[in-house]
Design brief:
four-stranded mixed β-sheet, 2-methylcitrate dehydratase, 60s Ribosomal Protein L30, Chain: A, 21 helices, alpha+beta, lyase activity, 2-methylcitrate dehydratase PrpD, MmgE_PrpD_C, about 50% helix, globular, MmgE/PrpD_sf_2
Length: about 450
């Protein structure tokens, strides 16, 4: 009865039942997600998928955020999910390393634009969809992830289906079928990390989830036990059977309240190491020729997810803790520029990269690391990061998120639009017509610029 119970909880949810803390964090999540979506909108991978939509003849129903084009709702969900994850700068629920916004907000906003939904509709659907995705993630983590599934893609479709079911006010049976349709279509292999296919995962999850809800609304059926059955989602894709995590204490607190935001444009498990090397460099201003070696001690996922030593592209660099530390040593940051092809192939950074070594400590948390720098003259400098900046225990402030939004959107939208979007999102629950929101996401340059 797990899927049935989850469906009944989803359909019983309402904006009025959601606490202020969850609504506040949903707004912060939107600001962060929208910034990276607009910032990633000009990436080559987005252009390639957009070209596919044009070959197919996609109807202009919803915006590709940060671009002038409109496509159908499904392709808009795919493209906006892709663009928001392409720079690996989006949010994370660290307990399962799920990126909650990338598969859910693209579906919600694409549907909201075409169906003329309100700001409250958007926030409610996002919170409910994220809750569903996060709880399913908790039921299959960690074995699901270690088997090779990219959890953002695999459970994200279920979250998107729950979100769109909420917006469509589907009944319990229809929501049950929407979850089942999404559950049968998991997306994402970790083998794809460092390629264009990695950010495709949340986009495809958003697309799958929306399609699942639309099909369920037409009476398309699925198993009524898609999550808990012997050959259902949880048992087929993991060694866990933590079914209680899916429904336990639903509505008492919300998983979105635990969301964390990235100050660095790389795999989240690299952030403690980046934080540590920047702290050392700010204090001592070391030169690369002084350094004999740099030792990073961290959680096992640092090696599992970001252990790439031989890299040639910026996308690969995001999954190389060696590059992350070397680039941050020189630049005192790890933003979008530090993960370009040029930066990855810079001779000075490549040279320092070879001096970085990794030590795994299974007692460390994902947001914890120790950075030790040994100089040729015998001096050693050590910095321990207990909670990396951006983690739940050391969160980015509202001002830092606003500054990030302004920075990552670059020249795609102008300063006036940026300031207006920041204000609009802060008061999104008061907005009945989202037309201005989508207009503000449209770029200031012509299509030829991109």
């Amino acid at each position: 009865m797990v899927t049935q119970t989850l469906s009944s909880y989803i359909t019983a949810s309402s904006y009025e039942k959601i606490g202020e803390k969850a609504i506040y964090e949903a707004k912060r999540s939107l600001l962060n997600w929208l910034g990276v979506a607009i910032g990633g909108s000009q990436h080559e991978s987005v252009k390639k998928v957009l070209a596919v939509s044009q070959v197919i003849g996609s109807s202009p129903q919803a915006s590709v955020l940060g671009r002038t084009e409109k496509v159908d709702m499904l392709f808009a969900a795919l493209l906006n999910g892709l663009s928001s994850h392409v720079d690996d700068f989006d949010d994370t629920l660290l307990e399962t390393v799920l990126h909650p916004s990338a598969p859910v907000y693209p579906a919600v906003l694409s549907f909201a634009e075409y169906q003329k939904k309100s700001g409250k509709d958007v926030l409610e659907a996002f919170i409910v969809g994220t809750e569903a995705a996060a709880r399913v993630a908790l039921s299959v983590y960690p074995s699901h992830y270690w088997k090779g599934w990219h959890i953002t893609g695999s459970v994200g479709g279920i979250g998107a289906a729950a979100a769109i079911s909420t917006m469509m006010r589907l009944n319990v049976e229809e929501t049950l079928f929407a979850i089942g349709i999404a559950a049968t279509d998991p997306t994402g292999l970790r083998e794809m990390f460092g390629t264009m296919t990695k950010p495709y995962h949340p986009g495809k999850a958003a697309m799958n989830g929306m399609l699942a809800a639309l099909m369920a609304a037409q009476g398309f059926t699925s198993s009524t036990k898609s999550l808990e059955a012997e050959r259902g989602f949880v048992k087929a894709l993991s060694n866990e059977e933590s079914f209680e995590m899916i429904t336990k204490k639903w509505g008492e607190t919300y998983e979105i309240e635990k969301n964390s935001y990235k100050p660095f444009a790389s795999g989240v498990v690299t952030h403690p190491a980046i934080d540590g090397i920047i702290s050392i460099q700010k204090k001592y201003q070391l030169l690369p020729q002084q350094v004999e070696w740099i030792e990073i001690t961290g959680h096992p996922l640092v090696e599992e997810l970001t252990g790439k030593k031989i890299i040639t592209t910026g996308l690969e660099g995001k999954f190389s803790v060696y590059h992350c530390v070397a680039a941050a040593f020189f630049q005192l940051k790890a933003g979008i520029h530090e993960f370009t092809d040029d930066c990855v192939n810079d001779s000075c950074i490549k040279g320092l990269r070879e001096k970085v070594r990794l030590v795994i400590n299974e007692t460390y948390r994902e947001d914890q690391a120790q950075v030790k720098v040994k100089l040729y003259d015998g001096r050693e400098y050590i910095h321990t990061v207990d909670h990396a900046i951006g983690s739940q225990q050391n969160p980015m402030t509202d001002q830092q998120l606003q500054d990030k939004f302004i920075d990552v959107t670059g020249s795609i939208i102008n300063t006036e639009k940026k300031r207006r979007l920041i204000d609009l999102i802060a008061h999104l629950d008061e907005v009945d017509d989202l037309a201005e929101f989508f207009a503000l996401c449209c770029p200031v340059f012509t299509e030829n610029h991109s």
